[in-house]
Write a structure and sequence with these properties.
nine-stranded parallel sheet, 4 helices, eleven-stranded mixed sheet, elongated, alpha/beta, 2 domains, about 25% strand, 28 strands, UDP N-Acetylglucosamine Acyltransferase, domain 1
């Protein structure tokens, strides 16, 4: 049985599963789809074609699924897809895609702290943390287990590699390598995210290989093309190394460079 506060406004056309809780003065629009066990806090708003996955908790004042903050948006039907067991704290904002049929997607078990923002056409993986007022511009990709510090901003079309961490107040204008620690304005690579990769269960030998690769790629003074060749020659082909090198080679915006 659902528990919906008497002051909440829930459109009759909204699709609600069982065991949903909706707080006072919350608003749920006609095109929302809300899965089992979702909690919608007081004064929160879910509008547009938003799908909320099972067990997700949305706190006070969050606005989920409102129109993209994009001058190209012309009112076309687009989507926001949110996975399971996400925690969306106070006054978070998330927008759907801009073009007709496009979408913004959020994976499972992410934490979005207060006032953080996920813009149109973003792709957020699983087990990420976006701290207070962290901001993703349009078309940003966050891979799995990324941590974005408070007040950090990520430029549109930027990719942030898995198990990376970005310091608070950073300005991210190029792709962030997986497994890295980045910080600054503009953000630069300081080294491996040792805490993150250790918590993720990465073996010690893989960590050692990545440490050597990071020294070559980001702290040797070599251009990336030459650094990649040296990593291949000196370290060889391993899963984590291949992932890192492929991420760099596929970058369209360029990759954050290391500190000197």
């Amino acid at each position: 049985m659902n528990k919906i506060h008497t002051t909440a406004i829930v459109d009759k056309k909204a699709k609600l599963a069982d065991d949903i809780e909706v707080g006072p003065y919350a608003i749920i629009g006609p095109n929302a789809e809300i899965a089992k066990g979702v909690v919608v806090g007081g004064h929160a708003t879910i509008e547009g074609y938003a799908t909320i996955g099972e067990g997700t908790c949305i706190f006070t004042g969050a606005v989920i699924g409102s129109a993209p903050q994009d001058l190209k948006y012309k009112g076309k039907k687009s989507f926001l897809k949110i996975g399971k067991k996400n925690v969306i704290r106070e006054y978070v904002t998330m927008n759907p895609g801009t073009e007709e049929g496009s979408f913004t997607s959020v994976g499972d078990e992410n934490l979005f702290m207060a006032y953080s923002h996920v813009a149109h056409d973003c792709r957020v993986g699983n087990n990420c943390v976006i701290a207070n007022v962290g901001t993703l511009a349009g078309h940003v990709t966050l891979e799995d287990k990324v941590v974005l510090g408070g007040f950090a901003g990520v430029h549109q079309f930027t990719r942030v590699g898995k198990m990376s961490i970005i310091g608070g107040c950073s300005k991210v204008v190029q792709d962030v390598p997986p497994f890295s620690t980045c910080d600054g304005n503009p953000a630069k690579v300081y080294g491996l995210n040792l805490i993150g990769i250790t918590r993720a269960g990465m073996p010690k030998d893989a960590q050692a290989r990545l440490r050597r690769a990071f020294k070559i790629l980001f702290h040797s003074g070599l251009i990336l093309k030459n650094g990649i060749e040296k990593v291949k020659k000196n370290i060889g082909s391993f899963e984590e190394i291949e992932y890192l090198l492929n991420f760099i080679k596929n970058s369209e915006r360029g990759v954050c460079r290391g500190i000197k």
